[in-house]
Amino acid sequence: MTATLPPSRPMEPKEFKSDLKPIWCPGCGDFGVLQALYRALAGVGRPPQEIAFVSGIGCSSRIPGYTTAYGFNSVHGRALPIAQGIKIANPGLLVIVAGGDGDGFSIGGGHLPHAVRRNVDLTYIVMDNQIYGLTKGQLSPTSPRGLHTVTSGYGSMEEPVNPLLYVLAYGAGFVAQGTPADMPGLTSVIEEAIRFPGFAFVNVQSPCVTFGEEEQQLKAHRAHMKALASLGHDDADRLKAMALASDYGKELYTGVFYRNPEPAPTYDALVRQRQAELQPKALRRERILELFRKPGGP
Ligand SMILES: Cc1ncc(C[n+]2csc(CCOP(=O)(O)OP(=O)(O)O)c2C)c(N)n1
Ligand code: SF4
Ligand SMILES: [Mg+2]
């Protein structure tokens, strides 16, 4: 795959829908995320063979199988390093990482700062349901303090992580949040994230209807969500974005927190540039073999 792709063409969301029927619990928020994703991809207009989905393990990590794009349902917590490798090796692919809060901020939490600072051009969508869904309702890193789960029978004693604030602090160029309770808004932030040149993060409040709290369900989202645009937020203002992101867990802000108006060069572009610079100086294959054949080695 080369870095130059043919121009995009008008596409339909159904072109991204695979024949696999999702096996999520009826009412799971991930259904809405998947629909928003199909619509966003149609808006971007790249055909499925130019897109790669990478996920870890979890209910949310089933996403790649439900699309017609390339997909890798990989190892719990390891989606980001795999996705970075795919993008660097195949710069022409549009790479999207999808997974859960446990996958991304717990076991995979060590990869997040490095993926952000490296700034490989990919989109990271986290379906944040504040619980380990697939393994039947244990505490996750975003579970609120006091939450009763199978692993916190008397209520969680831990402060949750704040994913929005983390990625902003690590230096991400695009940070947004959405909920399936607002499908147009969710579709729009996903499409904008995909279009952003660099590491783009979308935290989706995607309710787990089976193990999640009542106040984390779509009905509550509809009642409490606040569009950042309606608050007059300037998404070029990183410090203001951090101040708003500090309300994670208290307020449900939707939309773009931060979009770097001057996106930094991506790691994958820098790799290509370095390769081009070094190519003329590279030793020819025959010369390398000659050196190795010399008695005593090179
Ligand atoms: C190395 C490893 N450790 C633990 C697990 C078990 N495991 C599978 S999914 C998961 C957590 C899922 O939670 P989350 O990432 O939030 O996804 P959700 O199911 O909520 O969408 C765990 C602990 C595993 N598969 N591999
Ligand atoms: S357990 Fe929760 S996250 Fe998993 S499919 Fe069911 S509702 Fe969705
Ligand atoms: Mg989860």
What does this structure look like?
The chain is of the alpha/beta class and 298 residues long. Helix content is 33%, strand content 14%. It has ten helices and eight strands. It has an eight-stranded mixed beta sheet, with helices on both faces. Strand 5 (174-178), helix 6 (183-195) and strand 6 form a beta-alpha-beta unit. Helix 1 crosses helix 6 (183-195). The longest helix has 16 residues, at 29-44. The radius of gyration is 21 Å and the shape is globular. The two termini are 34 Å apart. The site of thiamine diphosphate has 19 residues, from strand 3 and helix 3.
Which helices and strands occur, and which strands form pairs?
Layout: H1 29-44, E1 51-55, E2 70-73, H2 79-89, E3 94-100, H3 101-107, H4 112-118, E4 123-128, H5 163-170, E5 174-178, H6 183-195, E6 200-205, H7 218-224, E7 226-227, H8 238-245, E8 253-259, H9 267-278, H10 285-293
Parallel strand pairs: 1-2, 1-3, 3-4, 4-6, 5-6, 7-8
Antiparallel strand pairs: 5-8
Helix pairs in contact: 1-6, 5-8
Strand content: 5-15%
Order of helices and strands: HEEHEHHEHEHEHEHEHH
State the helical fraction.
25-40%
Bound molecules: thiamine diphosphate, iron/sulfur cluster, magnesium ion
Let me know the largest β-sheet: 8 strands, mixed
Q: Figure out the total of helices.
A: 10
| Strand tally | 8
Strand order of the largest sheet: 2-1-3-4-6-5-8-7
Give me the Rg, rounded.
Answer: 21 Å
Mean pLDDT: 95
Q: What are the low-pLDDT stretches, counting only 5+ consecutive residues below 50?
A: none
Q: Report how far the terminal alpha carbons are from each other.
A: 34 Å
Structural class: alpha/beta
Report the principal-axis shape.
globular
